[in-house]
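Support request from a user on the community tier.

User writes: "When I paste my structure tokens into the form, the page sometimes reloads and wipes my input. The last time it worked, I copied everything first. Here is what I submitted, just in case something in the input itself triggers the reload:"
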């Protein structure tokens, strides 16, 4: 197989959930970018990508080989002397209002009791999608690793509740796509938006056939937010987290030099 492009999931693959990428991972990716083209896709906003990933990569290395696809590829940025927006599929204002109202109705129907303390927006407008976060969008930014532990504890206890919220929101919004994503999040996008859509956008805009791609992600199991990639036929590699991803990157770099 000719490897023309490596596509990485962000959260749980290159970084811990909502955490900035560490220096070792950044160094490995800068080395990889001299060898291969790389794309990064995730459900986070452009601002999240900036905080978790772009700021850590910096401006050294072959950034022309790097492409960013935030909010499940409803946005695309490439580096051409600076980060340039190629497209952004903004949701209309009326759709954003409908989605937010659907969340409010469902939470009311379920008599949902939020955590005693939340951090940042609970229902966030990411431009091309609306995202519900049970603990607030900024829990990790404010609390660091403690915030990660809170998210892990919440999802361990409340995953059935999160799935029920997502299912009921989907009933209210049949013309949209509702994904129970991440530890504590539910994303709502236009119909058909998932990681499979992202792969098709990557293939279209980077002009690299899917037969020459590999996707690396931590949630390729049924129900995981990377699982949709499998239906595209792209080669996939499952990772347990950033430490295993580092090992995979080292092997790719080594193989490219032999």
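"...and here is what came back when it finally went through:"
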């Amino acid at each position: 197989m000719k490897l023309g492009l490596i596509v990485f999931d962000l959260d749980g693959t290159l970084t811990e959930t909502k955490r900035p990428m560490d220096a070792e991972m950044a160094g490995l990716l800068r080395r990889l970018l001299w060898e291969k083209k790389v794309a990064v896709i995730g459900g986070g906003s452009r601002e999240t990508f900036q905080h978790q990933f772009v700021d850590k990569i910096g401006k050294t290395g072959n950034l022309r080989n790097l492409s960013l696809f935030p909010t499940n590829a409803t946005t695309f940025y490439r580096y051409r002397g600076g980060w340039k927006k190629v497209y952004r599929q903004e949701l209309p204002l009326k759709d954003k209002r409908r989605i937010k109202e659907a969340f409010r109705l469902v939470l009311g129907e379920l008599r949902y009791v939020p955590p005693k303390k939340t951090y940042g927006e609970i229902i966030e407008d990411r431009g091309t999608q609306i995202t519900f976060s049970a603990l607030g969008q900024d829990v990790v930014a404010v609390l660091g690793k403690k915030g990660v532990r809170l998210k892990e504890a919440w999802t361990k206890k409340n995953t059935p509740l999160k799935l029920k919220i997502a299912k009921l929101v989907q009933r209210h919004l049949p013309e949209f796509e509702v994904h129970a994503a991440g530890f504590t999040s539910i994303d709502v996008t236009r119909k058909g938006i998932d990681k499979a859509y992202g792969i098709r956008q990557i293939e279209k805009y980077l002009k690299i056939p899917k037969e020459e791609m590999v996707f690396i992600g931590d949630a390729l199991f049924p129900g995981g937010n990377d699982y949709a990639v499998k239906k595209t036929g792209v080669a996939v590699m499952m990772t347990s987290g950033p430490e295993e991803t580092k090992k995979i990157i080292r092997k790719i770099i080594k193989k490219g030099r032999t």
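Agent notes: The reload is a front-end session timeout and is unrelated to the input. The chain has two domains: 5-89+194-256, 93-190. The radius of gyration is 18 Å. Escalated to web team.
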